[in-house]
Amino acid sequence: MSDVSAAKRKKSKSKGKESNSLADDAVEKYASKSRSRRAEQKEESTVAKKYASIESNPFHQIILQSDSEPEEKAKAISQALAYDDSKTKEENEVMLAAFEEFKEYLMDQRKEMSKEIIRLSDTEAFSELQSVFEEMNGALQDFETQLSPLIDIIDAVHRLNMASDGAMYDVFKEIQEDKVEEERIAKQREEHEASLQGYNNDVTALQKEIAVLREDKSWWGMGGTTKSALQDIARKQVDIENKQNDISNLRQDVESLTLDRETKFAEYAKEKEQLRTLLDITSDEHKERQEALVGAALNFVNTTDERTGAVLEHMDGIRGQIKNVGSVNGSMRKIFAIVNDGIKDAEGKNATLTDKFQAVAENESQLQTFEREDKLQAVNQHVDSLNAAKVDTLGTYGELQQENMNIKSMQDTNNQQINHTRKMHSSGTAGVASRLSVVLTAVSSAALNEAKTATQNTLSGMNSMTHALAQNEAIKNATQLHVQNDELSNAIKELESYREISDKATEITRAALEEQKVLQRDMEKTAEELAKSVRDAKGVTADVMQDDDGPDTSTRHTDKEQESSTKKNPFEDFRI
């Protein structure tokens, strides 16, 4: 147990160490940066301390502190570097030491300025390169992905439109027939799958029933399965076998349900597939695909504009950096040119002193000879030191000239790059946008042109079909005229028979109406008589009872008869 615990603790410690390594790395990285920064600051402070009194240096005063013209500075340098025989050897050596100090100061300043320029270097160049590759190529790939299927469809439709014998319509018709067959197969497959599920459910149910029957034991569970249960199990097992056979047969039927239609256009198989793609996608989906293509084109233009603009911005930054390097180089070359000119003049003056101290005067004493040769030696030493300084100065000047050539080459290259990039950013991007607009317009135009051609072919097919139908219809119409004539003849015969019947019916009706008229008159007369009889019946009592006392009944009767005769006959309106 202790060994296992120790191993776990050791593993835990190692894992803790690994987990802390990232943090340690970060701290170490930060610390190293801090140390590097402190080292630079320390170096700067050391340099500053080393040259704390540089402004008192005579050469610093001549070149950097003076506002004189360069020629005057060169004369002053010459005067300072030439051996001054009015001063001691040590004093001349001090001047040369001051010159060496000034040269070292110039080199340190050159180094510091170069370091500052290095700090201003563009650190995002490779990041920009990665962005250009990823974003621009990604935008191009996206445009190609969106464009390719549309071009394939247009090319396929064009080839079908250009095919003879009305291939476009026939291929379209075959595609529609394929769809119908596919729908039939899909529906049948769905029905078979439902049947399979039903059979599987039946088998599962039978297996559960068999499991229950096996528990039907005799002798209160001490014996085996009962005989009746075994018989039921056997029957159900047979049912399972039958179901499984049905399942196997049905699975074979499902596997055989494939679209196996023989095409008449094997040579147009690819075109048929593209046309099927065109037809299977809805109008809204086609609109979305073309909108995606437009979006991809706009994205490519925007990405190109953005990336070339970013590259141009970086190149402008590099141009500024090159300009800074050139400015430092120019300042240093100017300083060393002044120094070189001063050294040349100093060499002439030193040569004059050398000649002077080499000349031997008449009656020269040994002491005079010693003093002259001592001064000559001092001048020669001064010349040697100055010559070494000259070589070093000329070497540095040569380096600065080479650096100037490199800077000019960089400037030329940078200017060309900027000009080319600026052209890409302006006219190049505009040209790409213009060509993309032409391409998109051409794609749309091509699609519409193929639609027009397809319309023409369809109309041509319709004209051919309707022409044939019209010819058949003309023959039918010509034949139909004879049929119509026969029908007219039959109609005339029927009308003639109807006329004869109508005449007979009219004659019968006339006789019946005349007889009816006589009967109506008789009825009217009879009705009048009946009315009179009714009136007499109603007035018989009054007539009889008033016969002795009242007026003459004959007169009253006459008035009643007149009154009766003035009343309207109720049957008058029905007379014929």
The fraction of residues assigned to DSSP E strands is under 5%
SS summary, helix count: 11
- The H/E string reads HHHHHHHHHHH
Which stretches of 5+ consecutive residues score pLDDT under 50? 1-35, 553-558
Tell me the Rg in angstroms.
Answer: 65 Å
- Summarize the amount of helix as a percent range: over 70%
Q: In angstroms, what separates the terminal alpha carbons?
A: 142 Å
Tell me about the biggest sheet?
none
Compute the number of strand runs: 0
* Mean pLDDT score: 77
Label the structural class.
mainly alpha
Global geometry:
elongated
Protein topology:
Blueprint (H helix, E strand, L loop, with lengths): L1 H49 L7 H8 L4 H12 L7 H31 L5 H38 L4 H48 L12 H30 L12 H12 L2 H76 L7 H180 L7 H14 L10
Helix pairs in contact: 2-3, 3-9, 4-9, 4-10, 5-8, 5-9, 5-10, 6-7, 9-10
Question: Can you walk me through this structure?
Answer:
The structure is a single chain. The chain has 576 residues and is an all-alpha fold. Among the domains are: 1-56; 166-271; 478-564. The protein has helices at residues 2-50, 58-65, 70-81, 89-119, 125-162, 167-214, 227-256, 269-280, 283-358, 366-545, 553-566. Helix 2 (58-65) packs antiparallel against helix 3 (70-81) and helix 4 (89-119) runs parallel beside helix 10. The longest helix is centred in the C-terminal third of the chain and has 180 residues, at 366-545. Mean pLDDT is 77; it is low at 1-35 and 553-558.
